[in-house]
Every structure is written in C-alpha cells, then in structure tokens.
Design brief:
Number of strands of chain C: 0
Radius of gyration of chain C: 24 Å
Shape of chain A: elongated
Chains: A alpha+beta (320), B mainly alpha (555), C mainly alpha (276)
Structural class of chain A: alpha+beta
CATH superfamily of chain C: Cytochrome c oxidase, subunit III, four-helix bundle
Strand content of chain C: under 5%
Order of helices and strands of chain A: HHHEEEEEEEEEEHHHEEHH
CATH superfamily of the largest domain in chain A: Cupredoxins -  blue copper proteins
Strand content of chain A: 15-25%
Distance between the termini of chain C: 39 Å
Radius of gyration of chain A: 29 Å
Oligomer: heterotrimer
Order of helices and strands of chain C: HHHHHHHH
CATH topology of the largest domain in chain A: Immunoglobulin-like
Largest sheet of chain C: none
Largest sheet of chain A: 5 strands, mixed
Structural class of chain C: mainly alpha
Strand order of the largest sheet of chain A: 3-2-1-5-8
CATH topology of chain C: Four Helix Bundle (Hemerythrin (Met), subunit A)
Chain lengths: 320, 555, 276
C-alpha cells in the first residue's frame, strides 16, 4: 500500500514509473505526480461519500420515497466551476512541458533512425549503422526518424518520450540523458508479427567515452572478417528485401550460388558474375540488368567504400 | 396490426408463436430481445478471446499460441467487443425494449427499419466472423494504415462487415431520434423524460452523425486494398495518418455511443434505489448533450504522438479536458441523489455503485492522458488499455449489467435469485479491479500494448491481471446461470418490483403486445410518492389501490 | 431505409403505433432528413480527403482537371437540375392529385437520371481509354493527344527532367516492396536527394486526383442509381393511383432524396471540373 502511493524518486524506478533518466523525465514526473494526487483526492472524495451514503442511508427493502430538494443551482454551479478551473491548470502545465518536449534544441547531436519490420536501425553522423542507440550523457540528442514499411513508434520509457515513425515522412524526437547505462527502447505502434520483439537499447555513454566508442565501432574492418561484415550490410542496407539467400524469387536475383555464373542481360548479351560485375552492380545498378528483372535497384555510390564492397563480394561468394 | 386477443395472460412473449414470429417481428420488445441474445453471444465470443489473451500473457514468452495467432486474437477481441457488443449493447438491446415503453408509446417510429437494423447487424456480424474463419484479421480493431493495406489477412471482408454494422447502428439512432421527437405522450415535455432517454437521444445523435464517416473511411480502406487507390499509401503520395483522423472522427464519438446510455441507466438506478428524486435533472440532461457535442471535437487526442503539429495537439488537449466537466457533473449529481436517501442495495444498485467507483477511476486516469506531457509517455501502453477498460467495461458493461438486472423482470416476467445476483456483482467487481488496475501500473512502467512477448519485469503484474480475468469469468458464468435459471424457475415478477415511476412500470411484466391498455400521459419519472410496498407480491403498488397497470396514473 | 417509409403505400397507410396521419407524415419526414444528414456526412469524408490533398498538392489538381471534359460535366449539371425541377413539380402534382401529370413528371425525372448516367459513361470510357485511372492503374499513354493538358503544361512549374538511366518507372511496381527512394534503405538518403522522378511538366502522383475523382463521382453515381430505382418504384405506384392529397409521403421523400443527389453534384462539378 505504501508502495502503491509512493510516486517518484530521483533516478530509481518508483512503484509507478520507470527510472527518471532524462531532463524531460523530471518535468513530466512532477506533472504526473500533481495529477496523481489530484486524482487520489477526487477518487477518495467520491468513494468515501458514496460508501458513507450507501452505509449510512441504507434501508430495508420496500421503502417509500423521501421528499428532499431535487436541485441546488448554487451547489451545482460550484461543482462545475471547480473542476473546470482545475483542468485549465492541468492543460496549461501539460502543454508548456509538451512544447519543450517536442521542440529539439538547436545544435543537438543528430542520429538518423529507420524503423522497419521488426528492427530499429541507428545511423550515426559518420555513416556507421547500429541496432542500438548509443548517445553521450548530458547532451542534447535528436533522432530524425522514418519508416520503411508501416507505422512504428519510438518509445523510451526512461526518457518519458515517444514519437511515431511514419513511412514517407520524417519525425523527430529529442532527449538529454541524465544517467549513463542501458535503457529499453520499444516499438509502441502495432506493426505486425514481431511487434513485441522490435526492441533496442539506449546505451548512454559517460562523458568523453562516446566519441571513442563510435570510432571503434565504426572500424568494422578491423574487428570482423569481411564475410561477416558483408552479411551485416546485407541485412542492414536493404539488400535482403530484394535478394534472397535461399534461391527464392525476389525483386532482384537471389544471391544463392550467384557468384561465378553466367547471367543473361536484359537487352541481350550475358555477363560472368565476378568481382567486377558485382562491384559495378552496386555502384551503377542500371548498367547491366539481369534478364527478367526491373531496373529498380538504387545506387550505393558514396555509401560504400571499396573495403565495404569487398566485404559484400566476399559474403555473396559465401552463399552457395 | 395484430388481431391477437388481449386476454389478461396475453403478453408480447406469447401473443404469437413460432420462429418466424420472432425473426420477422416488428415489435420493438421482441427486436430488443433478439438484439439481447445476439449481443450476449458476441460478448461470450469476445470474452473467450479475452481469456485466450490473458492466458497467453501468463508468461513473458510463448505460452499457448504463436505471435500471429495472438495478433489475430486481440484483433477479434477488440472488433467483436466494440462493433458487435458494446456499441449496440445498451441502445439496441436495452434501448429498443425500454425506449417506447418509457415514452408510453406502442412502438418506435419505424418498426420495419428497426427489424432491418437487426438483420443488418446479423449480416454484418456474420461477415465479420466469417472473415475470422477465412483468413483471420491481424490489424487490431483500429485498422491503421499502411499496415492494414499491406497485410495479407482478410481486412477487406471484415471492413465490409463493419460497414454493414455501421448502417445497422445508424438506423437504430435515426429511429430513436424520430421516436423521441414525435412519439412522446401528452404531458411528457423534454424535461419530464427519464434521463435514460436523454442518454439514448444524445447517443443517437452521435450514431447518426459520426457513423457515416466511419462508413466512408472503411470504404476508402477497402478501395485502397482492392483497387490500390493510394489515398493512404505513402509510396503513392498518400497520407497514412489521414486514415487515423478519419477513423477517430468516428471512433472517438463511438466511445460516447458506449458511455452515454450507460450514464442514463445509472441515473435511473441511483434514483430508484435511493428512493429519492434525481438530483439536478437539468444538469444531468444537458451534460449528456454537452458530451455528445464535445465528443466530435476531441478525436485528435488519439494522435498526440503521430507527428501532427503542436498547435493541433494543443487544441485537442484543451477540448479533451472539456469532456471531463460534464462527466464530473454527473458523478456529483449521483452522489447528491444518494445523500439522505433510503438506499436499497439490490443487485442493480450494486452495479450502479460499482459503476460510480470504476467510472471515477476511468475518468480520472483520463486526466493523465488529456495532459499532453504525460500522455506522450502513456500513449499506446497498458495504461491506455486499463483506462479504456475502466470506462468501457467498468462503465458501460457494468451499467449494462445493472440495466439488465433492473429490467429483467419487465422483459421476462421473472425474478432472478437476488442473493446470487449480489454475490456475482461483488465477485465481478473484485475480478475487474484485479485484472485492470494492475494494467495501469504495467503501462506507466512502460509496457506497450499489443505485446505478445514482454519483459521479465512485468511478469508478476501480468499474472495477477490474468488471475483477475479468471475471477471475472466465474462471475459471468454465475450471472448466466441464475438468469437462465430464472427463466424456467423464477418467481413471477410483479409489475413494479423496484417502485420506479417511469412509464414502463405502469404496465404488467411482461408487457402486453401493445405495451399499454390505455393512453399514457407523461409523469415525473422520479416522483415515487404514488407507490407503496406490498409484501404479498414483493413489489410496489399504487397508493390509491390497484396494481398500477390499469388505472390511469397520469398527472 | 426508404423502404419502410414507402411501403406504407397501401390505402390503410396509417400504422398502428401512430395517432394520426399527420404524426406519421412528420415522423417520416424527420426520419428522411436525418437520413439525408447521414448521406451528406458520408460524402463529407470524401470532401475532406479532397480538401486535404488539394491544399497539400494544388499542382496535381490544377494539372489533372484539364483532363476532365467541362462541356460534358456542364451538360450533366443541367440535366440533373432539370430532373430536380420535374421531381419537385411531381411532388406538387401528387399533392394536388394530378395523377397523369405526376406519371409524366416522374418519367421525365427518370429519363434525366438515364441521361446523366449515359453522359457519365461516355466520360468514364474516355478516362479508361487514356489510362487516366487511380493509383497504380494510372498509366496515361495518350497524354499528348489531349490538347487541353498540353496548353496548360507550359504554366506548370518545370519539374527536373529525368536522366536517361536513373528513372525507373516506379508506378508499375508493387508499392510496398521497394521502399521509396526518399526513405531508402537504412534511411541514409536524405530527403530530396532521392531518385528524380516525374517527367516533363507532369507533377508527381497525378493518380491521386483521379482516385478522388472516381471515388466521388462513382459514389455519387451509385446514389443516382438508387434514386432512379426509387423513382421507378413510385412511378409504378403512381400509375396505380396510390398517391393523392391525403397520402403522398413516398413521393415527397424520394423527391428529397433526389434533390440531395442533385445537390451533391452541384458541389462535385465545380470542385472537380472548374478548378483554377
């Protein structure tokens, strides 16, 4: 019962709310607390009066009527006006804080976010892509978000913030984390089969540790063999939406056993699928299109460097 | 119309016989009963889905089904409960039976339309349920685009079903508005109508004005799926969020289609069982109309996180708060009605008190959601799930049960077992709070709704919630048991078991085919001075003698 | 719904639950007005969709409306207005018990309905032939032989022309399988740097206009059909002399419905055909 009525404490999760780990969380929680106690008061008022009347005036079956006054305009106006004034206050404080929540500060650190079934992808300013959100503590961070398929919603409970991610447009969400550590990220807008597994972590790095992390993490080629990097790219950069690994039909040719075969081209002629052809197809996809497929692949010029392309070629070779 | 002799024992139940005499009846009372049976069957189906959901959520991982099945089950639970049960619940089932009786009329204005409305309901329900069997729908009852336009399940079919159900709802609303305008008896001015009629009237306005928009929305959705028209498809230059605006323009007022008649029922119950005139009649009546008007202006609060502009969010937040005022007025007026009354804790009154408790929680938690800053955190979490169950179940379903118990003697001519009734209402109350109060906590701690898997930290709360749902199931089986038992073995109901004064209690239970054997005049429905308790029939009889069903008690 | 009003057409038209004919008539009339309100709200959804897209993409509407034939639209407006007039006169004839006049006027009204649908058919067929359809079916092969569009094409702001290789015909694809370029893989393409699309002076997504055009006129056409069936039915009844000064409710109500159908067209015509 004590736990039930205790509301917020700094940092630690309370009975009602998760940990308070962003600047905005503290402000939201103080509003939460105000509404909570207001509600407790009115709830107690209604229940105490209701229970008291029900017990005090309880009567045996078969009662006649009681003649009392059937209205009292002054009283009724009073209990109309008081709630009205209270909700005006609520509206105002809620709106003030909301405006600050919805307006990203200038010069905030920008991270691109893509929602897709059923994964979040975070693209950092240097082009590195990660499945989790990494950010420095005590820094304004803004997420610029869009969706590749259906509507998703970025929800970080510990930061008390949430924003729908809609296909065909960009939406923004900002926060300034006050604590380091790992926090849950959920998808809050229903998006199909694995909606409930579309989670990620917000990993908040201590002062001075974020930039080194990003540098290290971006150095994929120093940490993983090319085949694994190629596979990561395959999953992250949308290749898998068109090119299957199991021979299944898709928008583009399957990667299974592709390397080393001769492909017929639309418009006549044929080409051996070797390193040079794959490289060309990534950078200038419309140059030589395999027969039976539409020229729909976007170019990846400027997004992959030679090392990246080598990794992808190695991955395609490995799919047999 | 019918030439059936009105012998003393002739009533609407036995005046004609055979299945067709029911399926093609034009009698509002029989149509009410048809609706009652239909919606209770839907409630049973929706309830089974709820049990499946809560059982699945006993553990954080897979429990009894796959993720896809879970998505289908919660979609069906929502769609069935909203479109098949709760929207037609009080208006079409209880309202159809009671409204003309309360008006002292012989029938609703358009009996054929009334029958057609039920048949449309049956058709729509059949199509909606068929879509489950063919290729279950997994969009959630809200059908958000672009998910609903791209999923491979039979969305088009269920949308067709809901479209037809919408027509059914429009016809009921239209019928009620005309009936209340044109068929009030002499002496019944607008302010002498029972408050339930104000509730049904404001509901009917919403039904007539909002449902067509749902119709066109679903039509656009179907066109999008069938013809690829692209209005809601971002890839074709359309706007997926526009769908949400269209959808909630109907579906938010629809919430008030659910709650307004419930409030009307509660106004009747609290006054009758407090043996006291309702307090502040006009404030309650006008607050119903106010809620109906405001209900059209608040749909945007479902989209605070959708990316609509701050200005729009501000306006919708302010308008949303405005709905809380008339609701608060009603609660205070009900409390004032109880003050210094002679309160009888019969089953219907226990439901009314439950309503007061649960609806207050539902309403107050709405403040968290109308406030922009806190809604951002709570939107699409279990807090929302708990909030709308407190309003729709704790409010509407509880009031529906209260009304069902209150008018059961009038409908069937039988009394149910009062003691079992009280016990079941208490079990239901406990089970309800165990189920849904825990969901407030889950939600504010951050558990999103429509989650098949959840994190370990929410396990105990989920299990508690599931246990609560089983308790509720027990209560519902009890209720079904004693109500069915009463049909066979119940004590014969007196004409006026509760000592109420609205016109439906001025005719025998069950009423004759033509409702009344005389022309009725309006009375003050909350003036109980004309009735005294008669021990021998366990019901009320007029102070002046007789049984209240023959003499003209007009004032 | 009209069924219930109308089938009271037998001489003993007063139903048992009404006190008198006047109460029954005013109830029917109120019911009809409410029903018309629901009809207007049904169309209101489409008008809102129209307003949203027109304010967001005025260029689409300006560009596309030149493909509609104002002359045929104008003739259709006149046809409907005239049929509304004959309908209104018909109600008057029913009230005065002029049976032959009523039959003649209802027949004329019905004829107007057929005329409207006939002209509409000519318009639809032309759109169909030129591929001016909704969504992914929009495939205007024969733009060039439509002079109206060409004259106007000069006024439309020049869209970037597509390079030879880089302009895949997106519209022929499944809309959801390939992400649109602006939101391309992994969200790494900033807005505005996607593949150039659009050719010449044609704005993007012209199909939106035709989608709305077919939805609005199609739904209206269905209403015309319903209205014509109702007129046909009261026409049959009035040949049998069912209506007179004492009972003309169905004629009155069908008349109201027909005026609504007319009224909606009065809004559709300028909104779709006469855009500036």
């Amino acid at each position: 019962m004590i736990g039930f009525l205790s509301t917020t404490g700094a940092g630690e999760p309370s009975f009602w709310l998760p940990s308070q780990s962003s600047t905005i969380a503290q402000r939201v929680d103080s509003i939460w607390e105000f509404i909570f106690w207001l509600s407790v008061f009115f709830f107690a008022l209604v229940v105490v009066l209701g229970a008291r009347f029900a017990l005090k005036y309880r009567a045996a079956r078969g009662q006649g009527t009681v003649a009392t006054t059937d209205h009292n305009t002054v009283l009724e106006v009073v209990w109309t006006v008081i709630p009205t004034l209270l909700v005006v206050v609520l509206f105002w404080i809620g709106f003030r804080t909301y405006i600050d929540m919805s307006t990203p500060p200038e010069n905030a650190y920008e991270i691109q976010v893509t929602g897709q079934k059923w994964q979040w992808l975070f693209t950092y300013p240097n082009g590195y892509v990660d499945e989790n959100l990494h950010a420095p503590v005590n820094t304004d961070v803004v997420l610029v978000m869009t969706s590749e398929d259906v509507i998703h919603s970025m929800f970080i409970p510990a930061f008390r913030t949430k924003q729908d991610v809609v296909p065909g447009r960009y939406s923004k969400l900002w926060f300034n984390a006050t604590e380091t550590g790992e926090f849950d990220i959920y998808c809050a807008e229903y998006c199909g089969t694995s909606h409930s597994d579309m989670g990620a972590k917000a990993i908040i790095h201590p002062e001075g540790e974020y930039e080194p992390w990003l540098k290290d993490a971006s150095n994929l080629h120093g940490r993983f063999p090319p085949v694994e990097i190629g596979e990561k790219y395959y999953k992250r950069f949308g290749c898998k939406q068109c090119h299957s690994l199991d021979g299944g039909a898709g928008i583009g040719p399957t990667f299974k056993g592709l390397y080393g075969t001769m492909e017929r081209l639309s418009g006549g002629g044929s080409v051996l699928v070797d390193e040079n052809y794959i490289r060309e197809s990534i950078l200038n996809p419309q140059a030589k299109v395999t027969e039976g497929y539409s020229p729909v692949m976007p170019t990846y010029q400027g997004r992959f460097n030679d090392q990246d392309i080598t990794a992808i070629i190695e991955f395609i070779k490995s799919v047999e | 119309m019918s030439t059936a002799a009105t012998t003393p024992d002739s009533n609407y139940l036995n005046v004609t016989k055979g299945a067709l005499s029911w399926l093609l009846t034009l009698d509002h009372k029989r149509i009410g009963i048809l609706y009652l049976v239909s919606i209770l069957s839907s409630f049973f189906l929706g309830g089974m889905m709820a049990m499946l959901i809560r059982t699945e959520l006993l553990t954080p991982g897979d429990t009894i089904m796959t993720a896809d099945q879970y998505n289908q089950v919660f979609t069906l639970h929502g769609a069935i409960m909203i479109f098949l049960f709760i929207i037609p619940g009080i208006p079409a089932a209880l309202g159809n039976f009671v409204l003309p009786l309360m008006l002292g009329a012989k029938d609703v204005a358009f009996p054929r339309l009334n029958l057609m409305s039920w048949w449309l309901w049956i058709t729509g329900a059949f199509i909606a349920v068929a879509s489950i069997l063919i290729n279950a729908v997994d969009t959630g009852w809200t059908f958000y685009t672009p998910y609903s336009t791209t999923t491979g399940t039979s969305v088009t079919l269920i949308v067709t079903g809901v479209f037809i159900l919408g027509f059914s709802s429009i016809l009921t609303g239209l019928n009620f508005i005309v009936t209340i305008h044109k068929l009030r008896p002499k002496g019944m001015t607008w302010f002498k109508m029972p408050l339930l009629l104000w509730g049904l009237y404001s509901t009917a306005i919403i039904q007539v004005l909002a449902t067509p928009v749902l119709g066109i929305t679903l039509l656009l959705l179907a066109m999008e799926r069938v013809m690829g028209i692209g209005i809601f498809d971002a890839a074709l230059g359309g706007d997926p969020v526009l769908f949400q605006h269209f959808f909630w323009f109907y579906s938010h007022p629809a919430v008030y289609i659910m709650i307004l008649p419930a409030m009307g029922v509660i106004s009747e119950l609290i006054s009758v069982f407090s043996r006291k005139h309702i307090f502040g009649y006009k404030f309650i009546a006008f607050s119903s109309i106010a809620i109906a008007v405001f209900s059209f202006l608040v749909w945007g609060h479902h989209m605070f996180t959708s990316g609509q502009s701050e200005l729009v969010n501000m306006i919708f937040s302010a308008l949303t708060f405005s709905v809380s005022i008339p609701s608060a007025i009603k609660v205070f007026n009900w409390l004032a009605t109880m003050y210094k009354g002679r309160i009888q804790l019969d089953t219907p009154m226990l439901y009314a008190l439950s309503f007061l408790f649960l609806f207050t929680i539902g309403g107050l938690t709405g403040l968290f959601l109308a406030t922009l800053a806190t809604d951002i955190h709570l939107h699409d979490t279990y807090f929302i799930v708990a909030h709308f169950h407190y309003v729709m179940f704790g409010g509407t379903v509880i009031a529906f049960l209260g009304g069902l118990h209150y008018w059961w003697p009038k409908m069937t001519g039988k009394m149910y077992n009062e003691k079992l009734g009280r016990i079941a209402s208490v079990i239901l109350f406990v089970g309800f709070n165990v189920t849904f109060f825990t969901q407030f906590v889950m939600g504010s701690r951050g558990m999103p709704r429509r989650y098949f898997h959840y994190q370990e930290q929410f396990t105990s709360l989920n299990q508690l919630s599931s246990v609560g749902s089983y308790i509720m199931a027990v209560a519902f089986f009890m209720i079904a048991g004693y109500l069915l038992h009463s049909l066979a073995k119940g004590r014969k109901a007196p004409a006026n078991p509760w000592g109420a004064n609205s016109l439906e209690w001025h005719t025998p239970s069950p009423p004759p085919f033509d409702n009344f054997d005389r022309e009725m005049r309006g009375v003050d429905p909350y003036d109980y001075t004309g009735w005294k308790y008669d021990e021998s029939i366990e019901g009320y009889v007029p102070v002046g003698g007789g049984d209240g069903t023959r003499d003209s008690r007009a004032v | 719904m009209t069924d219930s009003h109308g089938s009271e057409g037998h001489p003993a038209h007063l139903q048992h639950h009404f006190d008198n004919s006047r109460q029954q008539f005013s109830a029917s009339k109120l019911g009809m007005w409410l029903f018309l309100a629901t009809e207007i709200l049904l169309f209101a959804g489409l008008f809102v969709a129209y307003a949203v897209y027109r304010s967001n993409h005025p260029e689409i509407f300006i560009y596309a409306h030149y493909f509609l034939d104002t002359k045929l639209g104008g003739i259709n407006t006149m046809v409907l207005l005239l049929s509304s007039f004959t309908m209104a006169w018909g109600v008057r004839a029913a009230q005065l018990g002029q049976r032959k006049l009523l039959v003649a006027l209802l027949s004329l009204t019905l004829l107007g309905g057929f005329g409207f649908l006939g002209i509409k058919y000519v318009e639809y067929e032309a759109k169909w032939k030129h591929g001016l359809l909704w969504g992914t079916n929009y495939n205007p092969e024969s733009h060039d032989d439509h002079t109206g569009a060409d004259e106007h094409a000069e006024e439309v702001e020049e869209a970037p022309t597509a390079p030879e290789t880089g302009a895949p015909d997106r519209l022929n694809l499944e809309p959801t399988v390939v992400p649109p370029s602006a939101t391309g893989p992994a969200g790494t393409v900033p807005p505005g740097e996607g593949l150039p699309h659009g050719q010449g002076a044609e704005p993007d997504n012209v199909h939106i206009f035709f989608g709305i055009y077919f939805l609005m006129t199609g739904l209206h056409g269905i209403h015309v059909l319903v209205g014509m069936s109702l007129i046909f039915w009261i026409l049959l009844k009035s040949i049998g002399g069912a209506y007179g000064p004492k009972y003309f409710t169905p004629v009155d109500l069908v008349g109201l419905y027909w005026h609504l159908v007319d009224l909606i067209w009065i809004f559709l015509f300028p909104l779709l055909y006469l855009i500036h």
